[in-house]
Amino acid sequence: MLGGVSIWQLLIVLAILVLIFGTKKLKNLGSDLGSAVKGFKEAVNKEEDESDKQTQSKVIESEAKKDDKSA
User: Interior CA angle at 15 toward 9 and 10, to 5°?
Assistant: First the structure.
């Protein structure tokens, strides 16, 4: 049970979707959705990597300033 929805109800909804759209359109929709999610994940990971690089460069700069002041 998923929040009051049984497996039989899900199967009935799936059967209705197949009858309305057909398997080919559902397959295309699934692959489009999958590629959109993959693109979103790649964009998030790229943004995190860039953020990490900026943080690392700021840490290096602050350490260099500390070394200059102590010298």
Answer: 20
